[in-house]
């Protein structure tokens, strides 16, 4: 549904905004791949939930979302446009509410959602993702350990 307050020029700018394969996303994927992790990109982690994660570690059940500071209302870098302020405030607030809902749905399905801000250091984000995925894999290995090997 189009907002009558949004100009054609604004809609044109929004449509040109990259939503996938951004610089931060590609850099993060390269670091994760170099660390030996394998993943899927732009997948829906949970069937029936129309939310797509940027990076998905299926067996470990970890979903990584790379959020833009403007679009997701970063607490450090969010800006509130003065032009068409009501439209933008509602749009960004809906995005934030959807992010919270997505995280809750994934957690309820046994997934770990990770959020990476576009301003974060790629190295720090990669280290965080690697640590969570490896910890999750270790927990899964412990859960399927055959009986009698507790020594």
From TrEMBL:
Molecular function via GO: endonuclease activity; hydrolase activity
Short name of any one Pfam family annotated for the protein: Vsr
Keyword Hydrolase on entry: yes
GO biological process annotation, one example: mismatch repair
Keywords: DNA damage, DNA repair, Endonuclease, Hydrolase, Nuclease
Superkingdom of origin: Bacteria
Region called Disordered, residue ranges: 1-20
CDD domains: Vsr
Similarity-based family: Belongs to the Vsr family.
Name of the protein: Very short patch repair endonuclease
Taxonomic source organism: Streptomyces alkaliterrae
